[in-house]
């Protein structure tokens, strides 16, 4: 349209009679200035008239709350046009080769199957501390000395990390409560993400001493809820929860054991297994499952925390899938009675099964007790000790009794 | 307690003992981790692998048998030589970030320039090592060759940078005051402030001098306020000497 107007304008000028230019040649400068001004005024008027001739489109009032205009009919077509343009422009521009994006370690953490020596090397898991700061208990995890620091053997790191991931998966599958702890600055996002993935708890500011050994005093006011096998809250247990002891974690993952000795010591006192990142200056005896790695590199910590979170996610997914199929993969909490029911004799005095017995014997005993044998994920043969049979589950308590 | 606390490693043993006790009291419930910890026990701790052997020498006990060994690569000597000759190469900024952990595999040292890697001292070392390995050059020969390639590309980089600067300035870019201009500006500011102060000082002194020779009273503000009000009447002789 602009080109057409230009042609029109220039055409008009070229068609103008020649005597005008002759007169301009003869006239003074003031004349030419005033005439050019007249010209521009004329152009302005023509633009104005063109604008006025356009169909009137009123400015749409904007809604204060939603920030939308009243005209929503066009949104669909505009969006379709936007998508079309985007498709058109997709092949344009440079191709970005795969590269390291730091945020993806938190938003989309690696899985236990992604553990590789390259990944660990790139995340600087092999960098230990100065040789003078070492704990000789870590001699097995150390590959050598380079530039005055100990280099951690990545074979050991990968093996211990896989083992820890297997434990996390199994505990999440049995609905154990996993606590992820990383109290150094910058570890918070990774810790929260891992807890979110595995359905556990997280701690990123400070462990209040006595949280486990003196739980009733320190965590007594914390909210506790009773959930069913689908992790949905079951109401009506408030009275029964009042007199119960505070909840303790079943597994603790500690990303910086150096600063959390109190927590690890409390776990040891309460017989709670722990997983920890053990740098070359840390004491490997503080945790149950050490992962020899660099705890000072945020990238390394995010990789390890993400892998363990993904492992927990896998266990959680398995547990929920089993629940969908009607199998319970965990031992329900002790001593609860469904709201509005009496305590049964069976619950008061649970039968005791001798473990180490064959499955047939167990089935026979179950048949005697008129209770169907559910598919049990726990192994029939424990290494030592005996285990009481499970109490009726929440979800099928009515059916069974 | 003792010297070592093995309780974290022995959670399973402790739990099974507790279960045996609780079983008699009919309260036994295994924790959720019980069977998995039984199946995947923690690895052995406090292991000292033997790191080195020493020939038996009369009268000396073998020492440092269990201490980690230093890690040494053949490039280390080349690196020390290059950075000894070019110490300011160490002052240049360097990227230490690894991408996927296989970054070194993507480089081909048959040429000194690598895509995705800045030309630096490490390039010279790797190129020299490649020349020694695959072209059978001697250490010094390879060093000279790699070093001269390095100088050439550094020189080209300088030219490129200068041309880019000139082009940008020719098309209207402005890179702000340089360090010299900035320093000059600071100096000018100090100079102007001093000029102002000096003018004032000169005026004061002139006033004082005129007051001395004419014998008239001086303005109170222009001189230091005298401690004694009676001194105002006297002719100030000392301040001139003092100033």
Automatic annotation (TrEMBL), chain A:
Entry keyword Ribonucleoprotein: yes
Keyword annotations: Ribonucleoprotein, Ribosomal protein
GO biological process: translation
Matching InterPro entries: Ribosomal_uS2 (IPR001865), Ribosomal_uS2_bac/mit/plastid (IPR005706), Ribosomal_uS2_CS (IPR018130), Ribosomal_uS2_flav_dom_sf (IPR023591)
Superkingdom of origin: Eukaryota
Pfam families: Ribosomal_S2
Gene Ontology, cellular component aspect: mitochondrial small ribosomal subunit
Record GO terms (molecular function): structural constituent of ribosome
Family, as annotated: Belongs to the universal ribosomal protein uS2 family.
Name of the protein this chain belongs to: Ribosomal protein S2
Organism listed in the record: Trichodelitschia bisporula
TrEMBL record, chain B:
GO molecular function term, any single one: structural constituent of ribosome
UniProtKB keywords: Mitochondrion, Ribonucleoprotein, Ribosomal protein
UniProt family annotation: Belongs to the mitochondrion-specific ribosomal protein mS23 family.
Region described as Disordered: 208-243
UniProt-annotated location(s): Mitochondrion
Biased composition (Acidic residues): 231-243
UniProt xrefs under Pfam families: MRP-S25
Name of the protein: Small ribosomal subunit protein mS23
Record field: transmembrane: none
Gene Ontology annotations for the cellular component aspect, listed alphabetically: mitochondrial small ribosomal subunit
